[in-house]
Structures are given as C-alpha cells and as structure tokens.
Amino acid sequence: MRAVTAFLVLLTVSAVWLAAGPPAFAQKPSLKDFAAFSPKKAKLKAMQARGFIQTGLQPVYPADADCLKGTSDFASQTRSDGSRRSLKFYRGYHGGYDIPADEGTPIVAIADGTVVHKSPGRFIGGIGIILQHAPEDTGLGAWIYTEYKHLMKMPDLELGQRVKKGQEVGLNGKTGTTGGHYGSAGFPHLHLTAWYSDRPDYTTSKLFVPVDGRWMDPLALFRSETLLDSHSIRKLDKDVKKVPIPYLTPDGRSHPETSKVVWPFICEAKD
Ligand SMILES: [Zn+2]
Asked: Which class in CATH covers the domain with range 21-269?
C-alpha cells in the first residue's frame, strides 16, 4: 500500500514538473558543454563535434519580395567584408549568420518562443536576447534556441515572456561591433545564432548553454526539415542545400502561409 502511495506521489510531482514547463538552471555548464560553447575557451574539436562546421546550405531569396540578405556564413572564417575573423573568439570561426541592416530596423522572432536570456552588452556580441522554441513552435523536432545580437538597445521584453512568430524582438544595431575591426563607425547587422537540444533545460551562469546543446547552421531553421545536424546536412546533395527562405510581409502574412518559421526581417513585397 505504501509503495502505491509513493508511486502516486511521484506521478503527481512529475505531472506538476511537466506542466510547469522546462526548468532553467542557474548552475554552471558541464565542462563538455563549456568546451563547445565558450567564446574564448572553446576547443575546435569539441565545437566541431557539436555541429560547429560549415554545411554548404545556401539561401534562395523570394523572387516576389525584397529581403535583407545574409553576408557571412555560419562557421566561416571571414567577416562580411571578407576580412579574416579574430582568432580570439571560437578559434576564428563564425558562431552565427550575419545579416546587415540599417540601425533601427525591426528584427522579428523567427517562430513562436519564450524569452530565456538577455545580454546587457558588455561583451563582443553587444546587446542581445535569446528565445527558446519548443518542438511544436517550429515543427523542427527539437528544442531550438535563437539568439539575436548587436541590438541597438535592450528590447522591452521580460524573461519568460512568450513571443509570437513575426513579433518584434528588437531593433537592429551595432553594439559590440565598434572599437575593433570596424572602428568607431561599427557595423550594424544582425548576428543570428541557433542551437538545438533534445532536452528543454539550459544553464545561464556565466554562459548561456543549452544542456547537451548542439550548434546549428541558422539557415537550417528555414528548411522545414527535422534534419538539424550539421554533419548530416553537409553530406546532402547540392540541390537539397538550397533553402527557399520563408518570410513575413508587412501585412503580417507568412509566405508560405503555413510556415511556422520566418526570416528575422520583414520582406517588402515587390509591385
Ligand atoms: Zn556574426
């Protein structure tokens, strides 16, 4: 009888835990996670093992709308202007995908999600926020994280707040880009990072790291496929690596209409 009661209690606790949503842990990332995600201390082999490699994915922008375009690929060694990246961060490899835009251009959530982290902008990435997307938010079959960096100012969003696909999550800026390679003028652009994990938990002490997280090519967000692993994507045929970009127009419509994921900037329809 006592065993049955204990089992029921356990069942209730589990149900409550599940209903309350994923827990955020303030503890430090594991050494393994740290070796793959720390900007200054990551080891190349650990990064690569977690998907930090070039995939060869190529965006195909819509013919009937004008979208802001990417200029520096994920895991490339060059900046948007073709110069070599600093070896100080991620061993000289690019941790995201860069899309230049004027300062103040609205940036939108690529899918429904929850605000899980805000970076005040003391470091290289400048001001940034991170969204967590549940598997049903994107249809991509994993817990996805998207990070939007170099924002003009901290957006008026609270930790834990739900955002909708296409909702403004910040204004494009150049924070974190001035004073170094780009001088005092800086380089206004969105740096979009993407990670995924089979688990919903993450650590936020010192470094935001999804537990058992893996890097992903941000372009893989837009493929509507559950294949996210960079090593598997890299082996795909060239034709399959072309990614038609789903997007939002100013009237609030998604293209294609059923797409759960959209480009982080609104695209203007061509007349
Ligand atoms: Zn970047």
From this structure: mainly beta
- Rounded distance from Cα 97 to ligand 1 centre (Å): 6
Ligand 1 center from residue 52 Cα (angstroms): 14
118-143 tens-digit pLDDT: 998 877 789 999 999 999 999 999 99
Alpha carbon of residue 49 to chain centroid: 18
Provide the b/e sequence for 10-32 (b: ≥16 CB within 10 Å). eeeeeeeeeeeebebeeeebeee
CA 2 – ligand 1 centroid, Å: 57
Using one digit for the tens of pLDDT, what is the confidence trace for 76-98? Answer: 999 999 999 999 999 999 999 99
Tokens of 217: 């090519």
Distance from the alpha carbon of residue 245 to the mean position of ligand 1, in angstroms: 19
CA 98–ligand 1 middle distance (angstroms): 5
Cis peptide before 188 (omega within 30 of 0): no
* pTM for this entry: 0.89
Question: Can you name the residues that pair with 141 across neighbouring β-strands?
Answer: none
Average pLDDT over residues 190-210: 94
| 142 alpha carbon – ligand 1 mean position (Å) | 23
DSSP-based three-state secondary structure for 245: coil
